[in-house]
């Protein structure tokens, strides 16, 4: 059973993600501006699997955060199809994110006091008072797809590999059209990293969602269709090895 | 939206901090409630105890001391008023009833009070819960808490200044001052009055005079108890309780007996003075308790801000997952306001328990029964703490959703 389908998506279908003239500046300790990110034009086609590679501090995470609408660029725009995310008011951007984006963090960021099921269905509590039976069934299916059998275990007692599986299931719960993963295997041992990386790519393919994944993990990046290079000259896309 | 799962998760994660916040709020509330409720209960109980004492007449001296001795039965040697005054007052058309109060004896630590049948029945207001009122010399009627039983023989002793006997126990000091050859028989028991008279033994005043070798105030043997007293010699008594026929009569009697070697006053006058002092003390304590509550709330506020700061990443993750700002605000605010509310509830319970405990100790000391009741002032104070706590919790709640998601995720 696929992890999600187009009909389940609340935010509409998968669309191209377009970064145009993006510039992000920060200030250093002396108050001087320095450029963190400079992407003149980057289009992610619908349903594409794109890796992002670059040294630490090169702006991979910033690019993912921009894509999710966590913050706005100093220059340029981010569009999702014909929606210009970077000009949306905050509340609309929150709603768009809730309906469109699934985010997988390097450190999972589960709620340790909640069990597996409650962590996966957490996004449902943002918009509804009660969980529907369909939502529970979907969470159970996702958990099964991730190889999680005991849904009543608290997140605090899961292994790191299990935690990242729960985090991926949570990211997929709203059937997102855009999956953003920030070094999803970085804090896992090689065996778990391979399993989790494989699962992430598989479920993205099954659901037809676009996957944008920042990673240093060559095995994971090799599973992508293309890899964007950041921080080493101008941003450029290359075919995955 | 349903922030409850996250609120419960937050409270589980912060269980020790949450317990500390509840305990601090409960302490602030309990202190305020206990002070307010105790002061009011003391006023009500002391006023209730003075209900049947419209006008007191005694020998010139301290009005407060006479009130403490005649109404609250605190032992003290008092000068006596001439017994002939009893007959004068009985004949006075402005007087509905008059009764002497003769104290100075004890039995098993209970004060023995000589009075009239009318006053023993509180001017007809009170009927014995067991047996009957005394009808001849040598009989006694017991207060509700007196440790004698009906039919028991009661041997009175002189109370000695400075000797504070334990209730229900005839100690060696009491035994050494016994009125040998004199005894009362308990014939009845009064219902609970909630006053020091609950632990007193009431006997005919004639018997008290007889025990002290002063005759019985009547001319011949076999005279009916109570006034008029037609004996050659009518012994003096420490206090006279007068029930005037009308308010105007009360003022006229007070004016009349404020001169000529007597002192007359309404016990309420003394109580008002005492309440004023009590009120001043209560106000000081109330202000102290409010300041205490403000300090505790300030400490809690800082704790909440610090805790919210520590949980910045958690709330940033919620935002990153698509939670609207209102969701994050409710998670933080309801959680914290809930802790303050729980503290208020626990504090009310603690305040009630503290008041009851203090009331028990006070009753054991004085016989005054203080009944606990929450007043509007205490409820308003608790409501204010709840309101201020909830408003204060809005600040960390607002801080938690207004911050940058990216900065929050960095921790």
From TrEMBL, chain A:
Pfam families: ABC_tran. GO terms for molecular function: ATP binding; ATP hydrolysis activity; transmembrane transporter activity. The keyword Cell membrane does not apply. It comes from the Bacteria. One of its GO terms (cellular component) is plasma membrane. InterPro entries: AAA+_ATPase, ABC_transporter-like_ATP-bd, ABC_transpr_LolD-like, P-loop_NTPase. Keywords: ATP-binding, Nucleotide-binding. Residues 17-241 form the ABC transporter domain. This is Putative ABC transport system ATP-binding protein. It comes from Bosea lupini.
TrEMBL record, chain B:
The chain crosses the membrane at residues 16-37, 260-278, 284-305, 326-359, 379-401. Keywords: Cell membrane, Membrane, Transmembrane, Transmembrane helix. This is Putative ABC transport system permease protein. It is a multi-pass membrane protein. It holds the Pfam family FtsX. Residues 287-402 form the ABC3 transporter permease C-terminal domain. GO terms for cellular component: plasma membrane. It is found in: Cell membrane.
């Amino acid at each position: 059973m696929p992890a999600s389908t187009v009909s389940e998506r609340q935010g509409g279908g998968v669309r191209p993600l377009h970064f145009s003239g993006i510039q992000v500046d920060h200030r250093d300790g002396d108050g001087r501006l320095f450029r963190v990110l400079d992407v003149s034009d980057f289009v992610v086609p619908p349903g594409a699997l794109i890796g992002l590679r670059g040294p630490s501090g090169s702006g991979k995470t910033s690019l993912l955060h921009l894509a999710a609408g966590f913050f706005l660029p100093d220059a340029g725009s981010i569009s999702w199809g014909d929606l210009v995310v970077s000009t949306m008011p905050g509340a609309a951007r929150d709603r768009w994110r809730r309906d469109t984006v699934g985010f997988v963090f390097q450190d999972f960021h589960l709620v340790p006091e909640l069990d597996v099921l409650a962590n996966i269905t957490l996004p449902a509590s943002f918009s509804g008072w009660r969980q529907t039976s369909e939502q529970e069934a979907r969470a159970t299916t996702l958990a099964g797809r991730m190889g999680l059998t005991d849904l009543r275990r608290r997140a605090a007692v899961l292994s790191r590999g299990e935690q990242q599986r729960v985090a991926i299931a949570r990211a997929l719960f709203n059937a997102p059209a855009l999956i953003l993963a920030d070094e999803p295997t970085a804090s896992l041992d090689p065996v778990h990293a391979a399993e989790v990386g494989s699962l992430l790519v598989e479920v993205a393919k099954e659901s037809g969602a676009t996957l944008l994944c920042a990673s240093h993990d060559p095995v994971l990046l090799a599973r992508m269709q293309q890899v964007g290079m950041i921080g080493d000259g101008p941003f450029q896309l290359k075919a995955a090895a | 939206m349903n922030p409850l799962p996250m609120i419960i998760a937050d409270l589980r994660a912060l269980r020790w901090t949450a317990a500390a916040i509840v305990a601090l709020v409960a302490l602030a509330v309990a202190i305020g409630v206990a002070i307010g409720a105790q002061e009011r209960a003391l006023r009500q109980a002391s006023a209730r105890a003075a209900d049947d004492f419209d006008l007191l007449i005694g020998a010139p001296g301290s009005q407060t001391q006479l009130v403490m001795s005649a109404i609250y039965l605190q032992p003290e040697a008092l000068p006596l008023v001439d017994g002939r005054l009893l007959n004068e007052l009985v004949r006075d058309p402005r007087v509905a009833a008059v009764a002497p109060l003769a104290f100075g004896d004890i039995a098993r630590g209970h004060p023995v009070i000589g009075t009239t049948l009318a006053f023993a029945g509180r001017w007809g207001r009170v009927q014995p819960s067991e047996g009957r009122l005394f009808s001849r010399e040598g009989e006694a009627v017991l207060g509700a808490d007196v440790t004698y039983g009906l039919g028991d023989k009661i041997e009175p002793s002189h109370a000695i200044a400075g000797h504070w006997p334990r209730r229900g126990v005839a100690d060696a000091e009491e035994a050494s001052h016994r009125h040998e050859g004199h005894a009362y028989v308990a014939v009845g028991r009064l219902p609970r009055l909630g006053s020091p008279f609950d632990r007193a033994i009431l006997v005919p005043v004639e018997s008290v005079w007889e025990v002290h070798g002063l005759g019985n105030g009547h001319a011949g043997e076999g005279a009916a108890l109570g006034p008029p007293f037609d004996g050659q010699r009518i012994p003096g008594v420490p206090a006279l309780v007068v029930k005037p026929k009308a308010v105007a009569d009360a003022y006229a009697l007070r004016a009349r007996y404020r001169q000529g070697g007597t002192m007359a006053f309404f016990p309420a006058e003394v109580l008002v003075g005492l309440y004023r002092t009590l009120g001043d003390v209560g106000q000081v304590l109330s202000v102290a308790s409010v300041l205490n509550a403000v300090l505790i709330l300030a400490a809690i506020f800082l704790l909440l801000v610090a805790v919210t700061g520590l949980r910045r990443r958690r709330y940033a993750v919620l935002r990153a997952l698509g939670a609207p700002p209102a969701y994050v605000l409710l998670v933080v605010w309801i959680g914290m306001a809930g802790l303050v509310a729980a503290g208020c509830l626990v504090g009310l319970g603690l305040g009630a328990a503290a008041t009851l405990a203090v009331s028990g100790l006070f009753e054991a000391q004085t016989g005054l029964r203080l009944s606990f009741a929450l007043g509007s002032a205490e409820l308003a104070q608790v409501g204010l703490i709840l309101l201020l706590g909830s408003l204060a919790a809005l600040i960390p709640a607002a801080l938690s959703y207004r911050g940058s998601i990216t900065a929050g995720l960095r921790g």
